[in-house]
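Input set for joint prediction.
Command: fold jointly, output tokens.
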Amino acid sequence: MHFDLTDEQRDIQRLVRDFADQEVRPVAAELDREHRFPYEIVAKLGELGLMGMPYPQEYGGGGTDNLSYAIAIEELARVDSSVAITVAAHTSLGTWPIYAFGSEEQRQRYLPDLCSGRKLWAFGLTEPEGGSDAGNVRTTARLEGGEWVIDGAKQFITNSGTDISGGVTITARTGEGEISNIIVERGTPGYTVEPPYRKMGWNASDTHPLAFDGCRVPEANLLGPRGQGFKQFLQTLDGGRIGVAALGVGLAQGALDEALAYAKERRAFGQPISKFQTIQAKLADLATEIEAARLLTYKAAILKDRKRPFTLTAAQAKLKTGRLAVRAAEEAVQIHGGYGYIEEYPVCRFYRDAKILTIGEGTDEVQQMVIARALGA
Amino acid sequence: MKICVLVKEVPDAAVEKRMDPSTKRLDRSGEKNLNPFDTHAIEAAMQIKEGGAVDVDEIVAVTMGPESAVRALHKAVSLGADRSVHLTDPALAGSDVCATGYALAQVLKAESPDLVLLGQQSDDGECYTVGAVVADHLQMPSLTQVIKIDVQDGKLRCERQAEYGYDTVEVELPAVISVGDAINEPRYPSLKAIMGAKKKPLDTKSAADVGIDPSRVGEQGSRTAVLAINPPPAKEPGEIIEDEDTDETVQKIVSWLEERKLLA
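tokens >
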């Protein structure tokens, strides 16, 4: 076992770190304050090939491994979580099901636009009455004259309502005890993107409720075989957890970076507060926890790259990093004292952005369930 | 037109630099990167190529350094160079500026470029002189600290950073030009370029391959030797002007600046 990144992985890490520092950092606070979607940043990420990293180049993807992708999300989240989740949700949740389960025709139709970032895609799983219990799908789709007629609602759907959102892949009940995934393009009559939520954080990311009212799409919009929707979304979430875990590592690292820099500058009782043992203990603990969480996340990505089972490790990484992100943001605010409670300091935004990481993409309780199941408990 | 860009692998800017007292050289063991000034030179080459005023057949990145320096070449081709040449040989280790300039000039002779570009300084050695040494060996005109290049009638019209303002200089090709970081804003390498960097041609040359006289390179062949290293003197304390009467304070600041000729 060795811990060296490949040359390409290091160059990608450096590229995204530079990009985040130069293109995202100067505008992150403003985008958050104005709840403005980062269109310019997404366009630039697309030009650089960062909106479809782990997909084959023949579909316009970057042809990277999953570890490179996780590293990129980590580097973005180190600076801003809204941008990071926009890329992660688009890549892991929006694009992946089409790539993994789509027909060649569907891949050709959608992937080039998605991998280039010209369009975003969303994944509609959660419903008003079912998040963690995602198998309990209420949205229905029935075949009628060669079309699926969809009725129902989806909740908390990222990237569904931007000017460049191309559509959504939804889970729907297509029969008794049968769940299927169906592609719904934006602008289909009967498909309504409701006004955005007022969220605690992730303010520059795009999240909406969706409504389907007699929405008709061609029968061919079925993704993969009928009745495979449950298996498909579980697999999608497994991969998505690697991205969200990377987001947690990045947020925690960003919080530590800010806290360390502040602690070295801020003076109290005649010396920088970084010289006090109580502050040092916080910084040292965080650095250690972050390194452990990073290794767990990278391991999940490497397992996926090697086509080995990664469900357990991805769930562990997600559980570990979500909690760590919340704690790191809290400690970083604490080290900043009163200034940490003021929006001029990034840790204030980090604190608001962190909490969702113990909830989204499977709550901590769901991860525990997945992990316990794998243990045979 | 053929452009060669000289590049160098240096310790990453984020790494705190440290002199190794035993070798009296910079400790280069940590994370490394392409010299940031060289990224401006590559970008300048790309802008000449894309500018359309002259046909650029190829951009060749050239470096001299140990095996690891190949990473700087990968970065250079991911930023747009078409191919690269790596001069590497144990005999070259410890070369000073003159020896390095001579060795690089030997590689360039084999390439016979119309234009040689390089960053005006390396982020580690900060000698600012390699370009001039190379130009001397090649018997080409040399311009340093260039912040603007325009191609006109097969010649280059350059702006050169001067102490006050800049000089406008016209230079015939072939020429060796070192550029400052004000010349452009280097592009990011695209993901595709990063993934494809290792597929672009890379020639590895030994000292003998390019006809380098072994007695003129390496520690033995260098004409300078580092006798001792010392930490820089502590910074003098600044002058604090107490603001009692603002008009008076402004006057004091202005005269302080004027004394040092810092006001145009």
